[in-house]
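Is nicotinamide-adenine-dinucleotide placement plausible here? Inputs below.
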Amino acid sequence: MSNNLLKGKKGIISGALNSKSIAWKVAEIAHEQGAEIVLTNAPIAMRMGEINELATKINAPVIAADATNEQDLDNLFEKSMEHFGGKVDFVLHSIGMSPNVRKGRHYTDLNYEWYKQTLDVSATSLHKMLATAYKKDAINEWGSVVALTYIAAQRIFPDYNDMADAKSLLESIARSFGYHYGTAKKVRINTISQSPTVTTAGSGVKGFDGFINYSEAMSPLGNADAEACAQYCVALFSDLTRYVTMQNLFHDGGFSITGVTQNVVERFATDAE
Ligand SMILES: NC(=O)c1ccc[n+]([C@@H]2O[C@H](COP(=O)([O-])OP(=O)(O)OC[C@H]3O[C@@H](n4cnc5c(N)ncnc54)[C@H](O)[C@@H]3O)[C@@H](O)[C@H]2O)c1
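Reply from A.M.:
I modeled the complex. Tokens:
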């Protein structure tokens, strides 16, 4: 159902790899809510081709950009503004990748070249996107940038590995840039800390199955799925959330504020009645 929450708004959505991607759902719902969209992803991800299916469905051009490459990002904002005939109103950063996680390196034995890539792809890329947009004055006043994160930025989840460090940096960049962009141009920047979700990136984490089931049992509302996450992103892109900025917002069914649930207590009880 559409309430036209994003009618007249124009946005760039990164990270739609396949129909499981959180960004894919954001693009679909933003389109449904009246937005015009430019899709982007790394050239290598685009070779898989599924993004074209989404592009056709929501009538959006696709502009390839490696989010670690400043020239690519410059081109992305330049071409997007040309396409829209003006500035953009929202940007989704939905990008994450760790070679150490992919190749099973333990946190106590990281490959530091890969570590740099983890931080560059998963966190510094947000700074690069924001700096590009800022210098080009590419985002309208009251525009909204959202990046996706995970609670391992604040609490230890051992198998999340060096992605935890990347997410801490990502959230810090959102706060710091949020201050500067807010003061200068009234652009707001937030991170959404999402429940574990079955996607290509999500499923790459070792022991994901146990992880997602535990999270489900520890969340009063259960895990939030990709579609619900997309709805929250769209709410943050809309004018109904204009004074929300520099926040890390938990979208996790209550997981982050729950000490324990009855469900989990019962599983550990030894005093059988
Ligand atoms: N799935 C989860 O459990 C979960 C939970 C919390 C947060 N997140 C975050 O949500 C975001 C989206 O992930 P997802 O779960 O939808 O998985 P996904 O694998 O569908 O999306 C990750 C995207 O990052 C893109 N990417 C990787 N390297 C890139 C680069 N150099 N330049 C541009 N794009 C690049 C990939 O092509 C892919 O589209 C990530 O930031 C992820 O960490 C996911």
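Short version: Residues 41 and 145 are 17 Å apart (CA to CA).
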